[in-house]
From TrEMBL:
Protein keywords: Signal
Cellular component, GO, one term: endoplasmic reticulum
Signal peptide feature range: 1-27
Protein name, per record: SMP-30/Gluconolactonase/LRE-like region domain-containing protein
Amino acid sequence: MACCSALCSPKFLLLFLLLSAVPIAYLISLEVAKPATHVYHYHSTSWFRECAKWDDLNRRFLVSFIDGGIGQVTVPNDDPDAVLVEVPVVKHVDLAGNASLGLLIDRPRNRLLVATADVKGNLYSALAAYDLSTWERVFLTQLSGPSDEKSFADDVAVDAEGNAYVTDCTASKIWKVGADGKLLSTIRNPLFKAKEWYKNLVGLNGIVYHPDGYLIVIHTFSGKLLKIDLAKGEEVKLIEVAGGPLTFGDGLELLSPTKVVVAGNPSGRLVESSDGWETASVVGKFSGPRHRLATAATVKDGKVYLSHMVGMGYPKKTHALVEAVFSA
Ligand SMILES: *[C@@H]1O[C@H](CO)[C@@H](O)[C@H](O)[C@H]1NC(C)=O
């Protein structure tokens, strides 16, 4: 017990209490503060969630689990303040150890696409598709394995033909997967990499398909926004963003053909373009519960909701879907 002499001194204990109490008090103050915008809270079975997307036809949020799997959070019509409950719908036993990350509701094909990856080792990446009515798996496509370069399938978009584009935020590339689940090609480009090595630690991340036939993708640590024109042989261009760079931008969502929401830190940024995403500008910001870390955005009845990585509360772990209201 020799080490206790120093550590157990009243002075040290006081210091320890002070140091640990401040962040805890800060967290509690953030938690009990009345939110400025509407929040859907839901009880969950674990602390970490990645993405949430609103499924309007079935009146539910679909949520991806960092510990693997998918849940649904049904929203009753009547009570906006009810605490909702997450119910697991996919338990991906054969992929145990891998996280479920970016989600996309592929409405024409009635399925959910799920980017899946090994968070710790970056040794496995896959794209899974599940039927939205039965939750049966439609396909599981391995994108990379232990003998390939390190990778991390993070987010997914789908084009009009049903091809999926999955971002790899570790090696900064994009896998293209056909509507039938076949891995078709890998898109690489010098613009996908930042000059500074440390800015490539988290590279290509959120991705959306624009109805005019191109992809918009964000590079998280450099904050660059890129346009990939599918009609022009996957030509990649840097989108000049006034008010950028969009550093720490994570999930993206199209609010309209001229507006994209960027989730991350700050919690939400609204970016607008009037020239088909050659240039754009940050027109609004929203700061939500930053201790919960906003990771993705979705649109419900014209309103933007941000999902967060970290759940809080005891004994019930509670997650928050926070309405983002942007101001200049
Ligand atoms: C992810 O899933 C693959 C495929 O089943 C498996 O081989 C791999 O071990 C899993 N990764 C982890 C970290 O458990």
